[in-house]
Amino acid sequence: MKKVLAFDVDQTLNIAKTPIPPEIADLLTQCLDHFEICPISGQKYDQFLFQIVDQLKDATPEQLEHLHLFVAQGTQYYRYDASKKDWDQVYSYPLTDEQVAEITEAIETAAKELGYWEEDKLAEGDEIIENRLSQVTFSALGQKAGTEAKYAWDPDCKKREAIVKRAKELAPAYDYEIGGTTSINAITPGMNKVFGMTHLMEELKVEKEDILYFGDMTQPGGNDYPVVQMGIDTITVRSHEDTAYALRGILGLVK
Ligand SMILES: [Mg+2]
Question: How far is Cα 20 from Cα 53, in angstroms, rounded to an integer?
């Protein structure tokens, strides 16, 4: 029996950048009674709260102690303290200012050269490149763009693959991963989900065999692929509906 259910977030638990739907919230809450639940994604901490934690309205503090937030691909880890009713940061591995500047310049130059720098489409106050401390994230249409526009921007990943190829030439010291619907995450090598999953195993004192991972980008080049390469059992989903289907099956076995 698995001890840990780990999840990519965007397109695995929700529609990208939106809160998890009530059905997923209900299923995750039930799973907290039987498993350690570990969302791991390139998102920032406040997005984890908005998309996941705030939606688990029926979860008790004791249940939340089984929820583990692996933020920014697991380069930051947050755990719930039921006595304080709040989240503690257990660790964080940020990029240096120089690394952030190098990556930002490479991606911006690549996107501009290719004609994929869509500054004119940004909402007010929004930004294309965001420093998420442990990674730098390119979101072609910004954070605030509508879901439909995001889906339409690069459905076959070709634009992002081209940006990644050029950015890698300009700043080869970093790894660039495609995720979500319009994003590229740039990280220092090794600071991908392997880093997060390795720390997860240390922190939760579990082995690879104890983990079942859900993700939508498990193909080579996708940001869930490193987890597959580690040899962790993985379920590839197309959307949160597939995840809900699988979770109902798993809950049927443990109840
Ligand atoms: Mg995803």
Answer: 9
